[in-house]
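Sequence only, no structure available. Ideas?
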Amino acid sequence: MDEKFRKRARRRDNLAKNVIKIGGILVIASVLAILALIVRVTLPLFASSSLNDVGLHAQLPEAKRASLTVGLDSYQEVFHAISADGTLSFYSARTGDLLSEQKLADNPGMKIRHIEPYRGTISNILWEDGGLTMLEVRYVPEYGARNKRTIVPQVRVLKVWPSPKKPGLLMSMARRSEDSRFTRVDLFDDNTIHIGHVVTTVDLFDNEETESFAITMADPMPGTVTTLAVDDNAAALYAGTDNGYIVRWDLTNNETYKKTDTFAATTGNDTISALGMVFGGQSLVVGTSGGKMATWMPVRSDAQGNIKKMVKIHDLEDHTSPVVQILSSRRSKTVYSLSAQGLLHADHVTSENHLFNLRENTKVFGISLKDNNLLALDNNGGIRIWNINNPHPETNFKTLFAKVWYEGYDQPAYVWQSSSQSDDAEAKFSLTPLIFGTMKGTLYAMLFSIPLAIFGAVYTSQFTTPQFKRTVKPVIEIMASIPSVVIGFLIALWLAPIIEDAIFPLIFSLFLLPFLFTAIMLIIQPLYRDRKFANRIKGYEFVLLLPVLVFTGWLSLEIAPLLDKMLFADGFKLWLYNDLGMRYDQRNCIIIAFGLGICVIPIIFSITEDALSNIPPSLTAASLALGASRWQTVWRVVLPSASPGIFAAIIIGFGRAVGETMVVLMATGNTPIMDWSIFNGMRTLSANIAVEIPEAPFGGTLYRVLFLCATVLFSLTFILNTGAEIIRERLRKKYGRY
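Reply:
I predicted one. C-alpha cells follow.
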C-alpha cells in the first residue's frame, strides 16, 4: 500500500478523533454551563435575609424622645414621630433635620396615653381623657421639573371619638372597614369590653345617613384581660388574659356578638402580653410574657364547616423576655415583634423562617409600606434606619417540598398556587405536586407504550417477514418526527371528547379483548398442524388479529351501554363520583397515556428492534436446533441477550416522556393535584414552566422557583440516566456483549 496514502489516512483518522473528542467536551461543557446557569438563578431562594444600615444616626430633641410611634416612607426620604405631648413631627431621613411639626389635639396641654399602629399608615391615638383619634399619615411621591421626585406627607383625621362615659378605661383601638363602618373597642378595668359601630351610608341623592350601634360584652372571662386584637375589617375580636387564655368573638352582626371560642394559647400560665393580626386578617399572632411566639387560625371542626375552632398553626422564633408589640407587614406574611428588652425579631409566618434580629435597645419601630425600610427609636432618642433585604422570605425546603398549613386550609397540604384573587393570600410554591404529576403522567404513558413498543419490536424482528420489516420499521420511526404540538392538539380537541363519551365501552373493551384474543388463538391452533397453512401465514399472523380488534371495538360499543344501565343507575361517570369520590375530567391520564405513548413508542420500538436484530443468528439457530419453539427461543435466549439494549430503550423513552411539554400542556388541564386516579389530570414540571414563565416577574420568587423546577427536572433526568447506565452495564456483563 502507498505510504503516502497510509499517512494521509492516519492524519484524517487523528483529525476525526480530535474533532469528535472536542465536540464531546463542548457538549459536556454546554450541559454543565446550562446547569450552572439555572442553579445560579435558583440559589437566592435560600439566601438569608439581612439588615443594611443606611447611615442615619440622628438624635431626636429632648422633648421628642418620648415618642410613642414612628413611621417612614418607602424611599428613605422622610420619617415622622408622634410624641407623648401630641406633636406630629416630620424629619429628613437623610440628615435627621426637622422639616415640620403640628399639634394634633385641640387642647394644647392634652397628652397621649397610647398609640396603636394600624394598616401601616393609620395611628389610633388614645388621649388622656379617653378620647380616640384615627389619624392617617401617607407619603405621596410628586414629580416636578426634570422629573425630580419629592415625597410629600399627607395628614388626615379619619375619625374622632369622644371620651367614654364609663370610667376605668384601660385600652382602646379602632378600625375602619371597607363598607365605611368605623368600630371602636374599649377595655375597662372591670374586665368588660365595649364595642361601638358607626356606619355611614349615602343614598342616590348623595344624602348621608349615620347609624350607630353599641354593646357592652360582659361574658365570663377565664382571667383578667391584658390585651386585645381586632382584624382589619372588625369582623373578629380577640382578648388575651393573664393566665394564657384567648377569647374570640364574631363581630359580623352589628347588634349581637357571638363568643365563638375560648382556648389556652400557652402550655403554662404565661400572660398573653401582645396580640396581632397577620396580613389578611385570618391568622392571629400571640406573644406571651415568656417570650413565646405562635400563630393561631380558625379551622373547621366539623364536616359541614359550620363551626370553626382556633388551632395552633405555626411556631415562630422565641424572645428571651415578654413580647410587648407585634406589627405585620402590609405586603407579605412577615411579622415583626418587639420584646421588653428592646430586641426586634422578624419572622415569616408561612415558612416559619426567622429572618433577622435587631439587637438595638429599641423602644418603638416602624416599617415602610413596601416592607423595605425599618425605622427604630431607642430609649435615648436615637433614630436609625435600616434597609431590609428580604426578597424571598416565603421559601425554604419545607415550603418547597413538605406539607405546609396554609390559611384557610383544614390541614397541612402540598399546594402549588402561584397567583390568587387577593394580595393578602399566601404564596404556595410546593414542587411536590409537580414532581408527582410528572411521575404520574410518565408512568401511565409508559404502561401504555412499553408493551406495545417491545411486543411490536419482538414481532417485527423475530416473527414477521423481511419484506414486512423493511416496510413497517421506517413507518414507525417516521412517527417520531411528528411535532408534539400536533399530537397535543389532536388528543386534546379530537380524542378527549370521543373518550369522554365512550369511557365505559373503552374500559369494557380492555377486559373483553384478552378473552377474544385467547379464543381466536385456541380456534386457529389446530390449523397450524397443516404445514402448508403455517408456512403461508408465517409472518402475517397479525392479519388474523386485526378483525378481532375491530370486532372487539364494535362489540364493546354495542354491549357497554346495556351494561352501563344495568350496573349503574345514573351512569358510570356519576357512579365514579358518588360512590368512589373520583371525578372524571375530560383531559385526564387516559388522554396523556395515548399522547405521550405516541411520542415514546417510536423511540422504544426502534432501539429495541435494533437490539433484538443484532443478536447473532447462531444463538437463535442453536436454540431452535435443540428443539425449542420460536417463542421459547425469543423468551429464553433473545430477550435476555438483548436486555441491555431494551432497558436502554425504556430509559430513553422514559426521559422523553419526563421532559415532554406540549402534549401535557395541552391535554392535562394543568391541575396540580396529587391523586393517582387515571380519570383526572395533573401538572408536570415542564408544563408548569411553560404555563407560569410569562407571568413571572424577573428576579421574583416565582421566577426563581421556575428555575428550581428546571433544576429538579434536570437532576431527575440525570439521576435516571445515570442509574439506567449502571443497570445496563451490569446486564451487558451478565448476558455478554450483545
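The CA atoms of residues 537 and 543 lie 9 Å apart.
Hope that gets you unstuck.
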